Amino acid sequence: MYKKLTFYDLQKINKRKTIILILSFILIAGIIGFSIDNLFLGFPEYIKFPFLTIFAIFLSVFQSFASYMYGDKIVLKSLRARPANPEVFEEKRIINIVEEMKIAAGIPMPKVYIIDTDIPNAFATGRNPENSSVAVTKGLIKLLNREEMQGVIGHEIAHIRNKDILTMTVAATLLGIIIILSDMISRGFRFGGPRGRRQRISSRGNVFLLLIILIVAIIAPIIARLVFLAISRSREYLADATSAELTRNPISLANALEKIYLNQTGKPIGNKAVSPLFIVSPLKSKLENKESLWSDLWSTHPPIEKRIFYLKQMVKNI
Amino acid sequence: MLWIILIVAVIIILIIGIYNSLVSQRMQVKNAWSQIDVQLKRRHDLIPNLVEAVKGYMKYEKETLTQVIEARAKAVSARDKGDLKEIGKAEGELSGFLGRLFALFERYPELKANQNVMMLQEELTNTENKIAFSRQFYNDMVMKYNTSIQVFPKNIIAGIFGFKSFDFLVIEKPEEKEAPRVDLNV
Which residues of A have a catalytic role annotated? Predict the structure, then answer.
């Protein structure tokens, strides 16, 4: 059902999703700023200038621009990725495989990064195919043979060609900021929150305040849902299928997915914000492996069994 | 009179347009080919290094090594001639013998410990894959170009200016190629 879309359509859908993401981010930042203005500074009673609201909007516009321009660098840095060293045999092989797959997909050469961790995983990031990066972990290099690695790299190259990477990177970096901000606001509630200030805020302010909290409570989950929809599961199936098309070897990718999934042990790499970027979700949540409307809405990766099943189905069609 | 001049002008513009599009398509085919050609050359250059590196270890595999060297020589001369059918056949054979040589590596643990040999094997696998993937692209371009010079009215202009069709690159792999493939991680 995903096959009907050409990758030109996909690129357009991704562009639209990225714009929606950024706009809703600015909106939620404005609301957060507005509510802090009211909670802590007592606006409009005490100062007549919505300082934090304007500051939040300004900051979110700046942040959106930064995550568009430097999102890939932020993500790579936060995961401590380093450029692959062509002098080392294993890393030269990764560079070679990326070269092969970029020829197959007809895109410019992405930069190749290595993350020094034993947990196997891989992801792609970047603004567009001209400015893109592929990163694999040391653990992945140890775990997979050459053909399985080709399947994984093919999946990442597919994300680059379909322009998924921009949407995913912007989502990851903006989501990271929302996580930090909502942490701050909930901490604010706990310490000098509304209760402590009750006396200083007039009854009119109190009603106003309640309204703001209500709006934030309603808006925040909607925004979060939008983010998760933007990085929805379908693009993972599609990248799997594209990889199999490029390598003509769905079985190796299926094997690779299984191996990676079974080896997600220990502390997960990265945080909740970057987890949608990886080929196999580093979060071992049960939700990722369930089939329901609820998990479709809230998880970013399809269940691994289903992905493997579809890939094996492709073997019969080749 | 004015009408005649106008019609002639339109026809001339059309001819120029078609001619230019054919030239640019031919250019695309040639570019696609040069990508393959670079890899063919690289492959031919790597093989003597590989043979040199493994010769010492594989004293009892003289026959396979000679086959590889001979297949390479054939592939080199095919590339020099530029005959695509011959190139396809020679490269296919070369792949077959190389595959067999790589399979033999399994018997020599010292070879797998040799970084230089592993690197050469990796580079050869890389060139072979690159050739395979660029071949799809080249054949697509040839298909587009060959169709263009055959359909009306482009075929008239192609005929006048001598646009010739290109051959597809088909790499015929002999049966031996199905021999076990090397899996470095096992």
Answer: 156
Look at residue A247 and tell me if it is in a domain.
Answer: no
Chain B touched by A87 (CB under 8 Å) = no
Q: Strands A111-115 and A131-137: what pairing?
A: parallel
Is residue B134 less than 8 Å (CB to CB) from chain A?
yes
pLDDT digits (tens, 9 = 90+) for A253-270: 999 999 999 888 777 777
* Residue A225 to residue A290: CA distance in whole angstroms: 17
Domains of chain B, earliest start first: 2-178 (1.20.1440.20)
d(CA A275, CA A159): 15
Q: How many CA atoms lie within 13 A of A52 on its CB side?
A: 19
Question: Longest C-alpha distance within chain B, in Å?
Answer: 87
- Of residues A251, A130, A227, the one with CA closest to residue A177: A227
Cβ-Cβ contacts under 8 Å for A174 (sequence gap 6 or more): A21, A22, A25, A63, A64, A67, A227
List the single residue in B35, B122, B136 with the smallest CB-CB distance to A93: B122
For the record, the structure tokens of A225 come out as 């849902």
Q: How many domains does chain A contain in total?
A: 1
ipTM, two decimals:
0.75
CA distance A148 to chain B (A): 11
Q: Determine the distance in angstroms separating the CA of A252 from the nearest CA of chain B, rounded to an integer.
A: 12
**A83-111 pLDDT, tens per residue?**
999 999 999 999 999 999 999 888 999 99
In a domain, A66, yes or no: yes
Q: B137 and A103 in contact by Cβ < 8 A? A: yes
Q: How far is CA A122 from CA A86, A161, A227, A294, in A?
A: 18, 16, 21, 26
- CA A183-A188-A194 angle, 5° bins: 135
Q: How far is it, in rounded angstroms, from Cα A160 to Cα A153?
A: 11
Question: Measured between CB atoms, does B133 come within 8 Å of chain A?
Answer: yes
What single-letter amino acid sits at A278?
F
Least confident of A23-32, A150-159, A162-171, A182-191: A182-191
Considering CB atoms only, which of A89, A99, A150 is closest to B130?
Answer: A99
Range of the domain at A52: 7-75+166-229
What is the layout of strands, in order, in the sheet containing A111-115? A81-83, A111-115, A131-137, A122-128
Closest-CA distance, B186 to chain A, in angstroms, reads: 8
Interface contact A145, partner B, CB < 8 A: yes
What is the value of pTM for the model shown? 0.78
What is the interface size between A and B, counted as CB pairs within 8 Å? 38
